[in-house]
Q: What sequence folds into this?
């Protein structure tokens, strides 16, 4: 889709704010809505009109029900439009890093979470959780600070656009993609950090931005600069994790861009499952080749 085609299609803009591009549909009326017009519900986001209609159709209560703090908290969480998944990932990763600083205990935590393809051999030490927990441990304060800053910046844009569960799926699949490419091209290498997942967010943002007809020049420059830094001699950066995460993130972003309609939600889910299964299938290669 060209930028001209995108700009001439009103379905690609918020129906209440025609000047705002958006990627999210109301789950009830399927009209395009921008982040300001979205209300998060358990089944997805809905527009202000559908929200008012839903509230108006609620049957009146004839007696005063007993307040349930738990139910109120769930309702408040469902209608909160903040990028809570992003904040949660940043908080969890930062907490784990602080734990790894505890003398006599932190090293053990880091040992059990860091990734090395040697832990994929079932008859040696099969610990597959490391494929994802690698995102929780970092080599230094600067390492975790830069990754969390990037996650915070990218997540604040992507999570409202995709929704919390899609954003989490993108993050985890990108992290898995980074670990898989490390296992394929750098077997036996120890890897730590969320860089692969962050690169996945960058890749997805680039693809989705292109689909929406947005100006993605800044993202392309950022990707290029990071790529140059990744391959600098003596950088100590796992380029395999970066490239693997970026490629998988771009693929997931393409899936989201092509299956945005409500009728395509099941197809989208199965495609994401297929990506995860395909990545796990690739892990058979290092187990067979590098034994």
A:
């Amino acid at each position: 889709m060209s930028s001209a085609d995108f700009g001439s299609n009103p379905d690609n803009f918020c129906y209440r704010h025609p000047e705002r591009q958006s990627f999210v549909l109301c789950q009830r009326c399927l009209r395009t809505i921008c982040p300001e017009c979205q209300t998060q519900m358990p089944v997805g986001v809905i527009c202000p009109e559908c929200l008012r209609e839903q509230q108006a159709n609620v049957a009146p209560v004839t007696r005063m029900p007993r307040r349930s703090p738990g139910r109120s908290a769930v309702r408040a969480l469902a209608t909160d439009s903040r990028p809570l998944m992003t904040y949660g990932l940043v908080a969890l990763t930062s907490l784990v890093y602080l734990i790894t600083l505890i003398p006599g205990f932190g090293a053990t935590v880091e040992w059990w979470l860091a990734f090395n393809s040697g832990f994929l051999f079932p008859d040696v030490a099969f610990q597959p959780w490391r494929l994802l927990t690698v995102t929780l441990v970092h080599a230094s304060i600067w390492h975790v600070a830069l990754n969390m800053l990037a996650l915070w910046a990218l997540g604040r844009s992507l999570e409202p656009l995709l929704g919390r569960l899609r954003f989490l799926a993108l993050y985890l699949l990108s992290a898995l993609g980074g670990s898989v490419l490390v296992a394929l091209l750098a077997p036996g290498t120890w890897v730590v950090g969320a860089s692969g997942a962050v690169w996945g967010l960058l890749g997805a943002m680039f693809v989705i931005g292109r689909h929406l007809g947005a100006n993605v020049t800044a993202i392309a420059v950022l990707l290029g600069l990071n790529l140059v830094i990744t391959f600098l001699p003596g950088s100590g950066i796992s380029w395999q994790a970066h490239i693997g995460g970026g490629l998988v993130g771009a693929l997931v972003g393409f899936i989201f861009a092509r299956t945005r309609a409500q009728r395509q939600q099941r197809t989208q889910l199965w495609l994401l499952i297929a990506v995860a299964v395909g990545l796990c299938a690739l892990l058979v290669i290092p187990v067979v080749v590098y034994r």
Residues 141-162 form the longest helix (22 residues). The two ends are 46 Å apart (CA to CA). DSSP finds 13 helices and four strands in the chain.
